[in-house]
Amino acid sequence: MAFDAKGLSRTRMGGTSAAGVSVSEFSYATEDAAAVVEGANYFPGTCGLSKGDKVSAHMVLGGTPILKHYMVTAVATGGCTIAIQTATAG
Question: How many CA atoms lie within 13 Å of 45's alpha carbon, on the beta-carbon side?
């Protein structure tokens, strides 16, 4: 399937860094499988996501639902790049 803008909503405005960069948290609901959502440019560059935003994706809602958290690592005209969020020591 394809990205559906109706499934994406901003759930929280985050803080702003000293450089003026702000981040937000989004929720995304879809019937798509994780492999589809994780594909290149699934989220269009015009969907409102910014580098550093967090997306909680609720996927496969018509089957066995799963939840994964992603970090937006880049935004370009062609689409957004996301990475699975992991807990690592800084």
Answer: 6
